[in-house]
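Case 219 in the screening queue. Each case pairs one protein sequence with one candidate compound; here the compound is PRP. For every case the pipeline is the same: read the inputs, emit a complex structure as tokens, and attach any notable structural observations.

Predict complex for case 219.
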Amino acid sequence: MGINDLDYLTVALPKGKLFSPSADLLAQAGLSADGLEESSRKLVLVNEQAKVKFIISKTADVPTYVEYGAADIGVIGKDVLEESGQEVYELLDLGFGQCHLMMAVPEGERRQHLEDYAHTRVATKFPRIAERFFSEHGMQMEYIKLNGSIELGPIVGLSESIVDIVETGTTLRENHLVEIVRIMDATARLISNRVSFQMKFERIHRLVEDLQEILKKGK
Ligand code: PRP
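Case 219 output:
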């Protein structure tokens, strides 16, 4: 599979919110497979005619599959890509999956300056990005790694703040949290294994061009 199988293009897709828009977009560029649906429990799907294999993984693992060449290419949010620190090529901004990473605190716990939160605890799924951001502001923090429902952290007294993704703002509002500072914007990206990009250059390059056309038309 992957870089050893030159006839096939192996694509890693994340479960979750990016799955459907990714599968739809790739299908428009001719990459599809029977049974490629969010509800499917199948982890590998093959389209022998189109010479495509899809692997369906946990969102945070997509960059890992691509870095190690288990997948040639993949779709992943810029936020998860940055956090992973994996050595892959970022080929294209796919435009969907718009969100931003920010720091939030409970209403009523607002402090005057960002620096006033120095030395407090931050609950987050993104400790690397958070640490980079706070160190750039000269702030030392204590990072508590959570794997989901980050908003719970300050509500139950686990942390003073969170660094998390906001899409619509509903989760913040419903949990009485307020945004303090925006850290980065993110959208879905097409990424490639570095060796695959050389070995399967024509196919990947053509795909990027096709996707660019499709995205342009969709605007
Ligand atoms: C993400 C994020 C927030 C929520 C933001 O969580 O961590 O909790 O979505 O979206 P909103 O601004 O539209 O409310 P996700 O649903 O991916 O699950 P998780 O909490 O398990 O990470």
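Case 219 observations:
- The radius of gyration is 19 Å.
- The first helix runs from residue 19 to 28.
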